[in-house]
From TrEMBL:
It comes from the Bacteria. The record marks D97 as: Stabilizes the basic form of H active site to accept a proton. The gene is pth. PROSITE patterns: PEPT_TRNA_HYDROL_2. Pfam families: Pept_tRNA_hydro. Its EC number is 3.1.1.29. Hydrolyzes ribosome-free peptidyl-tRNAs (with 1 or more amino acids incorporated), which drop off the ribosome during protein synthesis, or as a result of ribosome stalling. Catalyzes the release of premature peptidyl moieties from peptidyl-tRNA molecules trapped in stalled 50S ribosomal subunits, and thus maintains levels of free tRNAs and 50S ribosomes. It comes from Luethyella okanaganae. The record marks N13 as: Discriminates between blocked and unblocked aminoacyl-tRNA. This is Peptidyl-tRNA hydrolase. The active site is at H23 (proton acceptor). NCBIfam families: pth.
Length: 194
C-alpha cells in the first residue's frame, strides 16, 4: 500500500447534459483541484477520467477520478481505482453532493451510513467498507414539493451560481487540508462557526 497517495473521487453523472447539475458538484470540485495542480483529466482503464499531481511541494500524490458511470453505479470505477493503485480505503476521499446540508456549506466525515445517497451506497457495496472520508458539499433541499431526485438533476439557481465558485473552492480546500494535516484539522476548520 502506498502511504504517499490519496485517491479522490468526485461523484456525478457523465456527459455534457449533466455538467451543471447539483448532483455533479463533486466532479466540479475535482475540476478545481485539477486546475490547482495544473493537471489534465485523461481516460483511464478503471472506467474513469483521471488526473494526477501534487497540490503542494513535497505533498502526497493525488489521483483525482471522475467515474464514467452514472452516479448510482459509482462503486465499480472506485473499487477498480482502489485496486489499480493498491490503495487502502483509508486513503480514499469521496466528494459528493449532500441534500441534508445547507447550500454553500462543506462538511467532512469518516465512515457512517450512506444517508440515502445512492452513489455512496454503491461505493460502500463495491469496496466492502464504509470507512472512507467523505467531503459532503451542501446543496440544500428543494423548496415546496419538488422531489429530491428531480432537484439534484437540475442546474444551480442563478443566486446559487454566483456563490458556486466559493463553494467549490471550499470543497477543494477541504480535500487539500485532509491531505496536508488530516481529517480532524479539516473538520475543525469547516465545522467551526464562521
Amino acid at each position: 500500500m502506498d502511504e504517499n497517495i490519496w485517491l479522490v473521487a468526485g461523484l456525478g453523472n457523465p456527459g455534457p447534459g449533466y455538467v451543471g447539475h447539483r448532483h455533479n458538484v463533486g466532479q466540479m470540485a475535482l475540476a478545481e483541484l485539477a486546475d490547482r495542480m495544473s493537471a489534465t483529466f485523461k481516460t483511464h482503464k478503471t472506467n474513469s477520467l483521471v488526473a494526477e499531481g501534487r497540490l503542494f511541494p513535497g505533498g502526497p500524490r493525488l489521483v483525482l477520478a471522475k467515474p464514467n458511470t452514472f452516479m448510482n453505479l459509482s462503486g465499480g470505477p472506485v473499487a477498480a481505482l482502489v485496486k489499480f493503485y493498491s490503495a487502502d480505503a483509508s486513503r480514499l476521499i469521496v466528494v459528493h453532493d449532500e441534500l441534508d446540508i445547507p447550500f454553500d456549506t462543506v462538511r467532512l466525515k469518516l465512515g457512517g451510513g450512506h444517508g440515502g445517497h445512492n452513489g455512496i451506497r454503491d461505493i460502500v457495496s463495491a469496496i466492502g467498507t464504509p470507512d472512507f472520508i467523505r467531503v459532503r458539499v451542501g446543496i440544500g433541499r428543494p423548496q415546496g414539493r419538488q422531489p429530491a431526485a428531480d432537484f439534484v438533476l437540475h442546474d444551480f439557481a442563478a443566486a446559487e451560481r454566483s456563490a458556486l465558485p466559493v463553494l467549490l473552492g471550499d470543497a477543494a480546500d477541504a480535500v487539500e487540508l485532509v491531505t496536508r494535516e488530516g481529517l480532524t484539522a479539516a473538520q475543525q476548520k469547516f465545522h467551526s462557526p464562521a
